[in-house]
Amino acid sequence: MKIDGVPYRSLWWSEAEDALQIIDQRWLPHDLRIQTVRTLDEYADAIVQMRVRGAPLIGATAAYGVALAMSNDPSDAALSAAYDKLHATRPTAINLRWALDRLRDALGALDPDRRKDAALALAHEIADEDVGINHAIGAYGLDLLRDIAAKKDGPVNVLTHCNAGWIATVDWGTATSPLYQAHDAGIPLHVWVDETRPRNQGALTSWELGSHGVPHTYITDNAGGHLMQRGLVDLVITGTDRVTRRGDVCNKIGTYLKALAAQDNGVPFYVALPSPTIDWRVSDGIAEIPIEERDPREVTHIQGATEGGIGEVRVTPEGTPARNDAFDVTPSRLVTGFITERGICEASEDGLTGLFPQEAKRSA
User: Fold this and answer.
1) Each residue of 102-154: pLDDT tens digit?
2) Is 163 one of the annotated binding-site residues?
3) pTM, full prediction
4) How many other C-beta atoms can be found within 10 angstroms of the C-beta atom of residue 28?
5) DSSP-based three-state secondary structure for 38
6) Bridge partners of 243?
7) 54: annotated binding-site residue?
8) Rounded Cα distance, 253 and 259, in Å
9) Is 252 annotated as a binding residue?
10) For residues 352 and 361, what is the distance between their CA atoms, to the nearest angstrom?
11) Per DSSP, what are the bridge partners of residue 293?
């Protein structure tokens, strides 16, 4: 996608630097800063501190982290150490483990002297695959938006939650890919963008949509149900950090409440789902998915643009305790369907296995 007319991916390999470069997302939407990642510790820190964020992007970043490790030491011990260090960074997004498993399995079958080049090639492959997957998700989601547009006057009103945009992936985004493609196809569109406390990731979605010219309005997290009651939302599309075999959806905290409001108001609730985000080994999302609990300071303090630059302020009384669960689980019964790179299916084991029979069989 483009920033001020210049094409970007959220990460890219610099031949000149012989290193990965990332958009440091902690400073968005106020400042575009590029970081060169040179050590395994820097890779791990980039994931933990959310310099990179979003399940697909975390997986791609980890793949490049393994490639870096193999360039320094291609031994079995170094491969295992890199896997463990990166796997420990964030527990909820399944793409992280998916990418690490893919590299470990492929590289473990090679002689150490072949691992450096193979690891970097596989990291490039994972990044490019993500772009293709997300573009395909957008093409299928475009059909949904086109069908709604044909039945109403005025723009199609879509509600989003968190940021499942191009900077949460390598490019295009998951939930935003249908929006970009609909806008480019000339479909009248308006997006309600949830702020998504505590890190206000909706501001990133607004920055993205604004850069692409997509009409949108930034709203408080608790406004979604109100807008649905008044017929101002035609469709909800969110991303996801992990989907279970039976279709439970783990996504940014607050997604469950949007799904409840959507069901109560008869609003379709779709999840944009790249297949690497399906955890075929897990069935019950509430019981089996570990939920990351992050630093309470993200709740008690807020970062934003000030006259003196980008700063942080406390929004709670000093000493007030806070809790910061980063994700929640939406049961499959509340999900209208999944938009995947192979088509749209119902949120169930039958629906998922119908589109991905080989993947389901391998994990059975």
Assistant:
1) 999 999 999 999 999 999 999 999 999 999 999 999 999 999 999 999 999 99
2) no
3) 0.94
4) 17
5) coil
6) 249, 278
7) yes
8) 12
9) yes
10) 11
11) 325
Q: Name the CATH topology of 2-129.
A: Four Helix Bundle (Hemerythrin (Met), subunit A) (1.20.120)
- Of the candidates 188, 164, 95, 172, the one whose C-alpha atom is nearest the C-alpha of residue 139 is 172
CA angle 133, 147, 172 (to 5 degrees): 25
Is 146 annotated in some ligand binding site? Answer: no
Which amino acid type is present at position 351? G
Peptide bond just before 91 cis, omega within 30 deg: no
Question: Domain coordinates of the chain in residue numbers?
Answer: 2-129, 138-363
Pairing of strands 269-272, 235-238: parallel
Check if the beta carbon of residue 281 is closer than 8 Å to that of residue 363. Answer: yes
Q: In the annotation, is 248 catalytic?
A: no
Beta bridge mates, 337: 270
H/E run at residue 279: strand 278-279
| Cross-strand bridge partners of residue 7 | 2
Could you give the CA distance from residue 176 to residue 209 in angstroms, rounded to a whole number?
Answer: 9
End-to-end alpha-carbon separation of the chain, Å? 37
Shortest CA distance to 159 belongs to which of 243, 254, 248, 250? 254
Average pLDDT over residues 224-245: 98
Q: If 0-12 CB within 10 Å is exposed, 13-18 middle and 19+ buried, where does residue 41 land?
A: exposed
For residue 320, what are its two tokens? 């007030």
Cβ neighbours for 22, distance < 8 A, ≥ 6 positions apart: 10, 11, 34, 35, 37, 46, 51, 52, 61
Dist CA 180 CA 158 (whole Å): 12
Q: Does 152 carry a binding-site annotation?
A: no
Q: Of these residues, 24, 130, 171, 241, which one is catalytic?
A: 241
> Lowest mean pLDDT: which of 249-263, 305-319, 333-347?
305-319
- 138-363 CATH pick, 3.40.50.2000, 3.40.30.10, 3.40.50.10470, 3.40.50.880: 3.40.50.10470
Check: CB of residue 216 under 8 Å from CB of residue 203. Answer: no
